Amino acid sequence: MRLVVPHPGHFAALKEIIEVKEAEGLNEVVEVYMAGSPEVMGSGRATLHSARIADIKEQTAYAHQHDLKMNIVVNPSCLGGYHLTFEGYKLFKRYFEELNKADVDGVTVAEPYFIELLRDFSMETVVSCIAHVDSPQRAEFFEDLGADTIAVDTNINRNFAVLEAITKAVNCDLKVLVNEGCLYKCPFRHAHFNLFSHITSSRSSLMKAQSPNIFSDYYFDKCISMRVRDPSQIIRSPWIRPEDMQEYEAIGINHFKISGRANAVNWIINCMVAYARRSFNGNLLELIDCPSELRYTFHLDNELLEGSIKQWKTCKKICDECRYCDELTAKVLRVHEK
Question: Does the pTM of the predicted model rise above 0.85?
Fold first, then answer.
């Protein structure tokens, strides 16, 4: 197993992560990732801290001293077409050159055009889950563009027939996100990624466009309210229990990525330890990112979920006919008493 861990972006957090990894002997942890520089482009998720090139170079060197790889995430789902202008091409090409000089090991992108740009560099090209690779055909397209690793769409995390088909269709490495708690087949997913792609970037001034000043995150609010009204949606989300990673290894997937680089470092460390040890006792929602706030409302007993992976591996995903997750919700989920 190769475990990839989120890093909030500031040096102190990296040191804490490495200190715990070494103290606990978590050899499964092989890589950390953090957001790229916002003055160049945004990313598809909320960002706690964005390091500049000098910070990235310093932190990469420190990670290498402790046998960890460094990956920089630059995965906006929307660039407003700027990447296809001559000015955009020069900016992004130069940024990849700077990352390469900083000795970064890999870059995670969602934009197909960037995959081809990265062919000129020795850094690993990782396709983000934001690229929605959910079939062997789509995986083949991205591999042909130059992908070294593909993080598959989380919507297929429990579709083992599709996952196995992808492993047979491509030669590149595959990676699954283990703790993303987004709604299964979320209707807001594309729009939400686009929103973050713009609000996490300070590059709008270069494009002579006004940065959006939103009054609320409509998609997040709807996401939370839907689960409060229908808690079975929490069970249907495509998270993976620490104990169930062996099921993915059995079909040839050995790379596991923990989501949550916008969270506090103590939360990240708790997730890292649980997934590295393949064991967790307590409220599974304490490990789930996006939205992690649900842990304050609900308690999801991880031990009571034992064996549920057997159903999910063969499930046809027709919820109105199956009702398994509805029945399971009544057994394993309870509302916190105030």
Answer: yes
